[in-house]
Amino acid sequence: MDEILKEIQDLTYLSWSKTRKSSGTAGSFLKSYDDSGYIKKYYKLSDYDPAKGIIGHECINEIIVQRLLRLLCIEHLDYRLIHARIMVDGKELTTWLCESDDYKKNGESKIAFEDFYLINKKPDETPLHMCERFGWSDKIYGMLTVDYLVLNRDRHGANIEILRSNKDKSLRPAPLFDHGLSLVCRYHNIKELSEFDVMKDLPVQSFIGSRSSFENLKLVPSSFLSGLPKLRQKDRSTLFDGIEEILGDAYMDKIWEMIWRRWTNLGSL
Q: Tell me: the pLDDT tens digits for 8-29?
C-alpha cells in the first residue's frame, strides 16, 4: 500500500465529528471512520477552522513521525496520507487527511492508559513505575524519546492505550499513535516559523512524564538511548520523500533542524 496517495480520492461520503482537543490551540480536529469493508478504516483531518477551512498540517506530521519511528525501530501505528475531497459542514473541501487501520487483533479490547493506571496502580506508584512493573519499560522509553525529538505536545492519558486479549487475558501497550500535535504544528506562517527556536522547552502534555520533554527524556536510561539505531543526515530524504510539494522547503528545513538538533543533543542530556 502506498504511504502517500496523491491522486484525489472521493471521500465525500464520510461523516466527520469533533474530538477532544487538549492542546489549547485554535480550531478543532475532526475524525471519521468507515466500517463497510473487511477492515475498519479510521480517518482524521488536520486542524480545521469553520471559517478558514483546514489550517494545519498535523496529518503530514503523522507521516514524518512514523518514518522517524521506523528508522528508530519503535513500534507504531501506520498512517496513510491521502489527497481527498470531503464534505464538512455542508461544504466540499479538497485536503490531505490520514487513514489508518484498526490496530486491535481479533478478540482484543482497549482501554485508555489513564483509566488502566487508576485501576491497577499500587499506592504511591507512578505511571512509569507501573509500566516497568508490567514489563513495558522499552515501549515507554521509546515513546518518551520520540516525543522529545518531535516535541509532541499531546501525549495525554488517552493517547496511550492498553490492549487486552479476551482469549488469553494478555496485556500489551498499543502501537504508538497520534503524533500530529508535534514538530512545528503551531506555526501557520513563515514569520512565526522562522522565529521558532527548535530547542525551546515548550510545555507538553505527558501523562507518564512531566510538562517538559527534556525532563521526560531524563527518565530514559542511557543504555536504551545508546541501543537505538543511529539517525544520520542522509535520513532527511527518507523523512520527506514525496512530501516536498505538499509541505514546502521552509517547513521541511525547520522540522529537520528540530529533529537533528534534538537528536545530537541526546548525549548531553
A: 999 999 999 876 444 333 346 8
Distance, CA of 81 to chain centre: 13
CATH architecture of the domain formed by 108-264: Orthogonal Bundle (1.10)
Q: Please, what is the angle between helix 127-134 and helix 113-120, to 10°? A: 80
Q: Are strands 205-206 and 161-165 parallel, antiparallel or unpaired?
A: unpaired
Strands, E, within the chain: which ranges?
4-10, 17-18, 30-34, 41-45, 48-49, 53-54, 80-88, 91-101, 108-112, 154-155, 161-165, 171-173, 205-206
Q: What is the pLDDT of residues 25-49, one digit of tens each?
A: 334 689 999 998 888 999 999 999 8
Give yes or no for a contact between 164 and 171, defined as CB atoms under 8 angstroms apart. Answer: yes
List, in sequence order, every residue forming a beta bridge with 45; answer none if it has no partner. Answer: 97
pTM for the whole structure: 0.93
Residue type, 112: A
Sequence ranges of the domains in the chain: 4-101, 108-264
Report whether 204 contacts 147 (CB < 8 A). yes
3-class DSSP assignment, residue 102: coil
> DSSP class of residue 80?
E
Distance (Å, rounded) from C-alpha 153 to C-alpha 158? Answer: 13
* Euclidean distance between CA atoms 143 and 65, whole angstroms: 12
